[in-house]
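job 3f2a | input accepted
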Amino acid sequence: MPGLIRILILLGLIFFGLGSCSNPLEPVEPEFVLKTESIMVFQEEFAQELDLKLAAYPYDLNQNPLEYNGLVLDLVSSFSEELVILSAAKEKGIGVDPSELEAAETYFQEDYPEESFDKMLFENAISYEFWKKRLEKNLIMEKFIQQELTDKIEITTQDLVEFYNKHLSQKLDEKELLSKLRLGKSQDSYEDWIMELKKIYPMEINEKILARFLIKDDKGQTNKGQTND
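job 3f2a | predicted structure (229 res):
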């Protein structure tokens, strides 16, 4: 996790109690968890994403506060990258039109015959609206990354020769070769690329709201798990 995010999370969260009362004369606290200048993640969306992650565990993570809080902070990290990419895409006018979204939805559901798609959503406690919103976000991020990172990767003749020699057994044609090479180089460049984007689109964490998602011990302190840098 970038230093800015780590500092914001580690400083001050333990001072916010769960369910603390606010003065009715004070302005209502905005209920976002994270935001950039143009996009916010509100409590409901954060809670839904957290529930999905918790549902993937074969045991009750609430019984392990350290691991549970680590999962929450990992979600903060994931959302921070998502917000930065979506904010940049929004500024550049990159979006998904209804026909693109419908085509992607149809393609995805082809893997689910008859009513099995609805059954999958039901079994995972996912609403159709939430799933479709997530699909749209993913399409926008993929389009932005393709346009602003992958397509801008420079490929030299030496890169092609070395890559070809390493993958002789795969018998790739020129188009497949270029695609795989460009994808690999873009993955290698991703961390530096996203760090630069975060400088352009700084993110704010609402520590008071985030504290509501963290489990505190008997002393009122937050047990924080490991986070992914």
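job 3f2a | Confidence is low (pLDDT under 50) at residues 1-22.
job 3f2a | closed
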